[in-house]
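Problem: given the chain below (332 residues), write out its structure.
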Amino acid sequence: MSRVLRFVVGRLLSMVVGLLVISLVTFAVFTLVPADPAQLSCGRPCTPQSLDLVRAYLGLDNPWFVRYLLFLQGIVAGRMYGAGATAVRCAAPCFGYSFQQHASVASLIASRIPVTFSLVAGAAVIWLVVGVGAGVVSAMRHGTIVDRMLMASVTVGMSTPLYLLALLAILLFGFELNVVPTGGYVPLTEDPLGWAWHLVLPWLVLASVSAAIYTRLTRNQMLDVLSEDFIRMARARGVPERTVISRHALRNALLPVVTVFGLDLGSLLGGAVITEHVFSLPGLGGLLMDAVGDLDLPVLLGCTLFAAFLIIVANFVVDVLYGVLDPRIRLS
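Solution.
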């Protein structure tokens, strides 16, 4: 237990340090952006006196390191913009405040994350089950017609752009066959069946490309593991083939799959931009695209940090799962 605890605590400390470094770099990048947030908030015409007042209201008259510390304070304890009757309170965790949308960045992200989470969670289940399953079948049927057909499908899936696949799916299943909705979102709490029905096509499109990648990755790892000495020894001892595959081969082959899955899941939760845009889903991808078009820097900064946070957390979960799948890692 002490080794496991040290393993988890060490990964947590690494995660915190990583988040601090990423927050500093991201804040510095958006600080160096040529666009002036005070000018964007002041609008036109804007006198120099009004611009100075807006800059002081937003806290932009402070040195960059003071603004960074205030930003970190907002995440932990919240912060105030301005003073007096016109002051705006941004409650923790405060990733910034969008004066263009008159809402905190955290509340904007919270309103969009259920859509993105619904999209990514359903697609992740499909691509993981299909990809790993197809990879195992392809490895077990290595060199046969089944293997060749699966690899041909993988090549097509990996070489097809996601936006083109989405448009073709909309054209075929939405307009020609008219069997599934082609856009929109229904909250899970209002209508579970309508929620799933509106997400069927986005799930399949988003999962198809990733499933192809996971099929090839699982197949290659399974072929490598099946050629190891301990697999031959297990078979020589009379261990059933199903046990050899599930308990010995697949468990070792899943290590790189877990790594890729954690990174994919974390990055997609930060905003599946193309899929959400094509299917008109109001998720984090749409929020990010709107912020780019409007030059809403607080939203851009907040969404970037939130996406980085999800990837860091995904890395932490992957490290823990690595320790579960391979106990040798916990001792390192």
